[in-house]
Amino acid sequence: MIKIQLDDSRLKSGLSQLLRNARDTAPMMRGIAEELHNATKDNFANEAWGSDKWPKSKAAAQRKGKTLYRSGELHDSITTQTGATFARIGSNLRYAAVHHLGGRAGRGRKLTLPARPYLPVRGDGKIQKEAEDNILQVVLDSMSRGLK
User: Fold this and answer.
1) How far apart are CA 23 and CA 13, in angstroms?
2) Per-residue pLDDT tens over the stretch 33-45
3) For residue 80, what are the β-bridge partners?
4) Per-residue pLDDT for 132 more than 90?
């Protein structure tokens, strides 16, 4: 008679670690928020949403500066928040949304601004490919943390 004996202790240990990682998602959410913030900084630096260039603003051309970066206030207002089940990014400036989404602006709403999405998620919910890839890597790394 042939007797086969398997040692499943490493498997049980790995599954237990995987379960702990799945229950404690706060580190993963912090990593996701960091990736969202990094993508936003890249968008401001490149004046683009990923590889899609923003329409150049007349004001930026006149002052020979960057679009959406007259004073740096919008760029500097970007903050993240995280919790066990969420990662958020945004700005509390009243004009932030119109720059991101486009729309009517100014006194009397006489000016129409084109959308210049600076956050890695557009108004239609589409996420930048690079940000999506980086977030997926954060999730994989977080879930596999502590596994051998």
Assistant:
1) 15
2) 999 999 999 999 9
3) 89
4) yes
Among the listed residues 126, 80, 82, the one whose alpha carbon sits nearest the alpha carbon of residue 100: 126
H helix runs in the chain, sequence order: 9-23, 26-46, 58-63, 73-76, 96-101, 129-144
Residue 139: per-residue pLDDT: 95
* Rounded (5°) CA angle 95-97-103: 90
Residues 109 and 123: beta-carbon distance below 8 Å: no
The whole-angstrom separation of Cα 102 and Cα 88 is: 21
The predicted model scores a pTM of: 0.85
Long-range pairs for 110-114: beta carbons < 8 A, 24 or more residues apart: 114/54, 114/55
Residue 23: φ, ψ to 5°: -80, -35
